[in-house]
Design goal:
The structure is a single chain. With 299 residues, the chain is of the alpha+beta class. The chain is built from five helices and nine strands. Strands 1-9-6-7-8-2-3-4-5 form a nine-stranded mixed beta sheet, with helices on both faces. β4 and β5 form a beta hairpin. α4 packs antiparallel against α5. The protein starts with a strand and ends in an 11-residue tail after the last strand.
Length: 299
Amino acid sequence: MSRAFNRKKDKSWMHTPEALAKHFIAYNAKFLGNTEVEQPKGTEVVRDAVRKLKFQRHIKKSEGQKIPKVELQISIYGVKILEPKTKEVQHNCQLHRISFCADDKTDKRIFTFICKDSESNKHLCYVFDSEKCAEEITLTIGQAFDLAYKKFLESGGKDVETRKQIGSLQKRIQELETENSELKKQLQSLENQLLTNQVPPGGGNSKVPTDIFDMVPFSPLAPLLPLPPSDASPPPPPTRPADIRKDLFGSEPFDPFTCGAADFPPDIQSRLDEMQEGFKMGLTVEGAVFSLDPLDGRC
């Protein structure tokens, strides 16, 4: 896996693994916005993105709009961008989709990362302004990615495999519940129809109506076999081969332990493939010089 951490080799990570694995590290910053880029990595790529978003900021500033403040929550699962007061999640960037992260060495307030959008599959460059923590945030994202990749290798994909099996079972249970509901409706409709045919409108004892073949309509309450004479022993119940395991409606009973891999939902399988591809691509973390001009009106 290619990974370019453009830092000193002996520089240790800033946080404990437990802080990123079990919780998250929070930072406050100003969000300049995001914009689509053509490539998942590269200093020139983020330079053009910063230039574009800075220009848009100047326009919004002239219209009296302020740069929105956000809270960044960084963990081994991704980078969440939240509204600081309401804690509403504005963007949720999964870590294996982040391919490039950099802070500007000439303008130490600016940092950025590139993430592949989960819906459009486009590469989006997110740009932020932090007064004191730009480099620290960049390193924290790099550390989170490193820990997430190690965890992925240690688990051997078991976590994803477990989720895949759970998703398959949930899908099968939902299908069975839907089928069961439809069968109940059909059975209730049949019972109502039989009761209507057996009870005449005027009431009283009358002959049970028959169909065009002079057959008594089926009733779930009536015995399916003729009753034996009182002095005879009841016939043994019919036996079925042991290898035929079907329910009343002729369907194979559901066994969660025989669910094959072919039954796995395709969205979960594609997520597993996507995680493997994302981690193999790696994350490039570097200190880049991509600021063309300083931001006006620091606040």
